[in-house]
Each structure stands twice: as C-alpha cells, then as structure tokens.
Write a structure and sequence with these properties.
Chain lengths: 569, 163
C-alpha cells in the first residue's frame, strides 16, 4: 500500500496501540498533525509547553506498563522537550518521541527552526534515529518501540524531516524486530543464581534492597514472595516505593539520604545484601568508602551490566530480567532442603525493632501551624492509601515519599534521577488519562508548581480532576534546608517572593482553589477536594516555613551518620 | 593501565559520535581512536586506546556494549595481540642531514615516500613506542610536521573478533 510518510507514522502508532500522543504542533510536523486530524484511533493531547508533553507521556508510561508517546516540532519544540527526555532517561522510562525536522535538503544549512536533534538528544536517550527515507519509517518506529521497552527501558527518539512526511512509500508494519547489535539478556546465569540462593539461605542478617527495576518490570509479586520466604527486612529506594507494601511489618522504609534510620542501619550492618533492580545511587549509599567499611556479601540483579559494580563492588552479579531471575531464585528456594536460620533471624529482627523504636519520622505536631508531614499523613488517610500520587521536587517530595505509605507499584511518580522541578502537574495529566476515574494527587511546592503551571489550562481542556496539594512554605525549601545546615543560615535566593494568589490563579484557569491555614482544616479540605470528583482542586496549604526533612545524611557522610532532628545539628 | 579496546559497530552515520560522545560525557580517557569499515562493509571496526583503573575499564566496556549499534567489544590487551600505527613525518632534508635521515629511517625500517630538494616524507609503521623512538632519534629542529593514524590492533592466533 502506497502511503505518505505522515500516514505511515500515524498507522504505526495505531499499530502499537498507542492510546494518547502528547504533543504540540509546528511547521515541521504539520503533515503529521493533518493525519492525526483525519483519524480517531490515536488521540492527541495538546499541552501548553513541550516539556509537559514529555512529562505527561512519561507518566502515562510510569503508571502503566505501556510506552508513552510524545510528538514535537523541530528546533524549539525539541529543545523544550529536552528536560522531559532527560528526566525519563535518568529513571529508565520507556518512551518514544517523534520530532519534526527541517526538510532533508535544508539539514545543515542553519535552516529556520533547525537544530541537530540527534546530536542534542544523544546523551539523554537510549537511542535515536534520523529517518532519511519514507520507506524506513515503519521499521524505524517498530525498532523504537522495541528498544524503548526491552532491556533497561528508556526514551527513544525518531527525528523525521518534513519532506519525508510528504514522500510516499510502500507501507507494511513489521511483525517482529531482530537486531544483531541489540539482544538484551533475559535469563540469569544459573550458576550465579545458585550461589545467590545459598548465600541467602546461609545469611544471619539478610537484607533486601529493591528499586525502580521491580516497578519497571512488574515483579512486585515475586519480590514480595522472596521477602516473605526469607523472612528478611526489605527497603525500597525512592524509585521503588510500592514495589513492596509499605504497611507490611517486614518493610523498613525508604533508605538513603532521607531514608529511615532502620533501613540505613540494616543496609550497613546486614551480612548478605541482595539488590533487586536498584542501582546503588549516590543518594542511597552515602559515602562509598564508608559503605564498604563493613564486610558483607552483596548480590546484585540488574538487566544492565553497567549498573553492576559501578559504585559498589558486588560478590554475585546476576545480569538478567528481574521477573525471570526472581522466578529462578524462588524455585530454587522452594526446592532447597535448607531453611533460613530462624534463630539468627530472630536476633536480627530484635536489632531492627530496636532501631525502629527510634521512630525517625516523628515530628512535633502543632495546633497553630500546619506541619507539611501532617498534610501527607492526612492525604494518605483520606485517600485510604489508594491514590496515584505524583510529586514535584524538593522537601515536599521527600515528605510524600516518607509519609504516604505506598502498598502498590506504579502509584508513586516522581523524578528521582534528574530531580526535575515541574513534573508534578504534567505527571498528573499522564496518570489521570491512563487511569480515568482514579483519584490522583499532585504533591508539590510553591516553587516547583510554577515551573509548569500553564498546564492547568490543559487540565481544563481535557477535564483532568487533579487534587493539587501544594505545601506552600514560601521557600525553595530543599535549598533553604541545605543553606541552613551547611551555609550558616544564609538564605541566598531561596525565598519565594511575590507569589501569586494560587487559589485565585486556579480559579482563573477555571478550577477550584482553596487556601488552608490551620491544622484543624487540613482533613476537611482534603475530604472536600476528593469529593469533588470532576473538579481540579488546588489546595494551597500554608505550611511551616522552616520545617526540615529528617533523617538526613549529609553529602560525603556515611549512610549511618544520620541527622535525626534539629537537635542533632 | 593502558588498554586496547576493539569494537565492532554497525557502519552507520552517527555511530562514531555515539562512541566519542560516551567517552567525553563520562570523562573517560581516550588516547587514540581509529575506525574504518571491515571486509563486511555493514560493519566498522574501531580500536580505542584508553587508560584507567580496572574499574573504569570495566565500565568503559560495559558502556560501549550498551550502545545500541555496538555489536561486540573486546579488550585486546587482556591477552596476546599485535598493535600497529602508521606515521607520516615530513622532515627538512638538506646537506648532510639527507644522508643521516635516510640512515635512521632505514634502521627503523621506514620508507621515504616523497622527496624534494629540501624535504623528505618518511612513512613508518610499528607500535607506538617504535614511532616515539623514531621521533626521538632525529633532530627535533628538522621535523616539519607529523601525522599519525592512531593504533589499530588485532588478537594473536585463534583470538578472532567477528560476528
Ligand atoms: C531531592 C532528592 C532526594 C533524593 N533522596 C533519595 C533518598 O533518600 N533515597 C533514595 O532511594 N533515593 C533518593 N533520591 C533518588 C535518587 O537520586 C535515585 O533516583 C534513586 O535512588 C534511584 O533508584 P533505584 O536505585 O531504584 O534505580 P532506578 O533509577 O529506578 O533504576 C532501576 C534499575 O533497575 C534496572 N532494571 C530496569 N528494568 C529491569 C529489569 N527488567 N530487570 C532487571 N533490572 C532492571 C535498571 O537497569 C536500573 O539499574 C532522591 C532524589 C531527589 C531528587
Ligand atoms: C528544574 C530544577 N531547578 C532547580 C532545582 C534545584 N532544586 C531542588 S529542590 C528545589 C526547591 C523546590 O522548592 P519547592 O518546589 O517550593 O519545594 P520545597 O522544597 O519548598 O518543598 C530546587 C530549587 C531542581 N531540582 N530542578
Ligand atoms: Mg517551597
């Protein structure tokens, strides 16, 4: 069948069962938009800034097991999209981005709205393509989806010059892809897996450290089974929250820079550590030399060999797809005559309970002023722990991670690797479209929310009833916290002056706005907001301006060198 | 430690910049990089000379393998291999220097491939040390320009890098 390039692109997207394309039109993609107009298999969501298109597509992917899709025009369309691409890349989110490019003949001539898209995105995509012939479009898009979602997932960009969208070519969507240079490993090495199982069975103080890989590969069930079988404590990274149920007794909380005391202590003092789809990030292990100070055996399962032994040397590396490797491990555990040493486990748990009694997340409640932690606790109660929660970046993000107890995977969406302020609302858009009717809360700060506030307009157009919980402390709080602790209280450019009247601003966009100033009003406001099922409600919580996030491990310090409260300063 | 890394990579536009971009983005050392198509023109072969601790070299090979277009990566320096580099060196060759330069070139098994009444171009192949020694062996003031290809390497005997 002879079709134009633009027709082919849209057919391919339909073939991939793409439900939504998040995008923004422009000269180089006019023919693509014309084709989108003529069909209704693939729906387009018009954002107000390309960055938001990327974040929304990214969130669509994070909250489902699908590939998110974004469409932007050449030049400024692409440069606006970069932050969104890099955000997805750092958190290994599968996405396909289609970008318009100037006509082939104009490439390299400093043409209007030309930029070297393949060059500018190269460091922040899993792979990218420039299509130079309409007959290559279908196979390239097929490859893009395949590369995005297999192996360690990531964003893949397909750059299509305008003339290619007009040119005609024979269309057939390839049924499968084979690439001699790209064959992600699925099965783990059986010898290594056996070794791992024996180590786990012989452990006296086992510890399970699970990350975003568990969420990305949908194997929470296997992880939970592993944790229960071993009777070991389990911690999740910021990206892994929800991988193991937070309300379970064996969960010791998030670990790392703002992790729980008991989680960090158990990481340091265990004798066998198994890392499951977690990459020993620098925010997680503290000072690597200090981390290595105590001898323990480390097992690391990851699909990306380069994640293994990058910052922390491991004893048993297992390269493979988590669900497959976990199945193998569970099978061997089941079949083994050995059982975990109950006596040793008892001792280990006694120690952990003692650490837990430090109650590291306690904070001083107040009748006068709203504590940000309290808002999250109430949010959890009011939504019965069952909402989708997106977050921006800052203190509010850490409080959301610490106080909202996620029991299910893919419910918590935030930018962990890049730490991109401004993701909150666009993430909400992507999640809500993927899960119509489900409650979606956006936890944000007055700083972050202003980075993509224009998306309130998109929310109006597509009736996206987010519940935006802004923990308004009139500060770039995370920055202020570091300045307080490290820079002698010199609050250089971290005060948010001249803030808009947020409730009124929300109203101006056609939404509902509320300002909450008293602790006693928090719960009522949240209940009222979630009752308004069809309205976007902007809740502007006036919170304690100088509250800090604890525990905290300062840069360069060991993981167990935690500041637990302001009294430790 | 110095390593000789061989890479088989799809012969596609932009593949080279993915490799060089990887080295600069991650701050890896790169002493030289050579690349050309192989007997199968759909594949290119690169030789990269890099230095770093074992941990860094391990990351380099892992990161190279991660590039979608990379087909195979081998650290040649892990076992017996040969390395060669080609140098063209233009020298001022007048008076008694003409004889002396010719003599040194012969000792190093170099060939004079261009002659004018005042210059020679000498072609020399060998490993890096040999080329360095040659440059050291002639009077520095006579050297007009040098150009080197960078090292290419291959495993000895049965060590074969192919599809
Ligand atoms: C302000 C701020 C503070 C932060 N503080 C903390 C903190 O206190 N604690 C914390 O934990 N983080 C914190 N972070 C986040 C941190 O920067 C990292 O993003 C995070 O720790 C990484 O999580 P992860 O190790 O689970 O890896 P991810 O980035 O989620 O990576 C997933 C890993 O799983 C692997 N994988 C993917 N798919 C598969 C598969 N199918 N099979 C096998 N493996 C697979 C990948 O290769 C990768 O190695 C903070 C971020 C910000 C912005
Ligand atoms: C795009 C971007 N710019 C700068 C930063 C650095 N940064 C991290 S947290 C933060 C403050 C966020 O302030 P706010 O949204 O009000 O959240 P709070 O910390 O007050 O809860 C800043 C500026 C960032 N993460 N992202
Ligand atoms: Mg703030």
């Amino acid at each position: 069948m002879l079709l134009t390039g633009a027709e082919i692109v849209v057919r391919c997207l339909a073939e991939e069962k793409v439900e939504y394309v998040f995008g923004y039109p422009g000269g180089a993609v006019l023919y693509l938009y014309d084709e989108l107009f003529k069909q209704d298999a693939v729906r387009h969501v018009l954002v107000r800034h390309e960055q938001a298109a990327l974040h929304a597509a990214d969130a669509y992917s994070r909250s489902t097991d699908r590939v998110g899709v974004a469409l932007v025009t050449s030049g400024p369309g692409v440069t606006n999209a970069i932050t969104g691409i890099a955000t997805a890349y750092m958190d290994s989110i599968p996405m396909v981005i289609i970008s318009g490019q100037v006509p082939t003949a104009a490439i390299g001539q400093d043409a209007f709205q030309e930029c070297d898209t393949v060059g500018i995105t190269r460091p922040c995509v899993k792979h990218n393509f420039l299509v130079k012939d309409a007959k290559d479009i279908a196979s390239t898009i097929k490859k893009a989806f395949y590369i995005a979602k297999t192996g360690r997932p990531g964003p893949v960009l397909v750059d299509i010059p305008k003339d290619i969208t007009i040119a005609k070519a024979e269309y057939e969507y390839p049924k499968s892809v084979t690439m001699r240079s790209y064959n992600p490993i699925i099965k783990g090495h059986q010898g290594q897996i056996k070794k791992a199982v024996q180590l786990l069975l012989d452990a006296k103080r086992p510890m399970i450290y699970a990350g975003g890989g568990v969420i990305l590969s949908d194997c929470s069930e296997q992880l939970t089974k592993l944790v229960r079988t071993l009777g070991a404590p389990c911690t999740n990274t910021l990206m892994g929250l929800g991988a193991y149920p937070a309300t379970d007794r064996q969960f010791v909380g998030m670990l790392g820079m703002h992790g729980n005391y008991e989680a960090n202590m158990a990481m340091q003092y265990c004798d066998v550590l198994i890392a499951v789809g977690a990459r020993f990030d620098d925010r997680v292990i503290g000072n690597p030399a200090d981390f290595a100070r105590i001898a323990r055996k480390i097992i690391h399962i990851d699909i990306d060999p380069s994640s293994i032994s990058k910052r922390v040397k491991v004893d048993v590396p297992i390269v493979g797809n988590l669900p497959d490797v976990l199945d193998d491990i569970l099978r061997l555990l089941d079949g083994s005559a050995d059982r975990p040493d109950q006596e040793a486990l008892g001792e280990w748990w006694k120690q952990i309970e003692e650490w837990r009694r430090r109650d590291c997340l306690k904070y001083k409640q107040s009748d006068e002023i709203i504590k940000p932690q309290f808002v999250i606790e109430k949010l959890w109660e009011v939504t019965k722990g069952d909402a989708f929660v997106t977050s921006d970046v800052g203190q509010h993000q850490m409080w959301a991670a610490q106080y909202y107890k996620f029991d299910k995977p893919r419910r918590w969406l935030n930018s962990g690797g890049l730490g991109t302020m401004g993701v909150g609302i666009p993430y909400g858009i992507g999640v809500q479209l993927a899960h119509p009717g489900s409650p979606v809360a956006v936890v944000t700060g007055e700083g972050s929310v202003q980075m993509n506030i224009q998306e309130l307009s998109t929310c109006k157009q597509y009736r996206i009833p987010l519940k935006i919980c802004s923990l308004n402390n009139r500060y770039l709080g995370m920055v202020r916290q570091w300045q307080e602790i490290i820079h002698g209280n010199r609050y250089s450019e971290s005060y948010m002056d001249s803030l808009p009247d947020f409730p009124k601003l929300a109203e101006a966009y056609g939404h509902v706005g509320m300002r909450i100033e008293k602790p006693g009003d928090v719960e009522g406001a949240l209940r009222e907001a979630f009752k308004r099922k069809n309205d976007l409600v902007f809740l502007d919580f006036q919170v304690d301006q100088t509250e800090n996030v604890y525990p905290m491990v300062m840069g360069g310090k060991g993981l167990t060198d935690m500041i637990l409260s302001s009294e430790d300063l | 430690m110095r390593h000789v890394i061989s890479v088989l990579i799809e012969n596609e536009a932009g593949a080279l910049s993915r490799v060089s971009g990887l080295f600069s983005a991650r701050g890896y050392n790169i002493e030289s990089l050579t690349v050309a198509p192989t007997e199968d023109v759909s594949l290119s072969r690169m030789t990269i000379i890099s230095t770093g601790s074992d941990d860094i070299i391990e990351q380099i090979t892992k990161q190279l393998n991660k590039l979608i277009e990379v087909v195979k990566v081998v650290d040649l320096s892990e076992a017996a291999h040969v390395e060669r580099e080609l140098m063209l060196i233009k020298v001022r060759a007048t008076g008694k220097d003409r004889e002396e330069l010719k003599r040194v070139a012969d000792i190093f098994r170099g060939r004079i491939i261009d002659v004018t009444d005042s210059t020679y171009v000498i072609e020399l192949t060998g490993n890096t040390t040999k080329l360095d020694s040659f440059v050291g062996a002639i009077d520095a003031s006579l050297i007009l320009e040098t150009v080197r290809t960078g090292v290419c390497g291959i495993g000895r005997g049965d060590r074969i890098l192919r599809l």
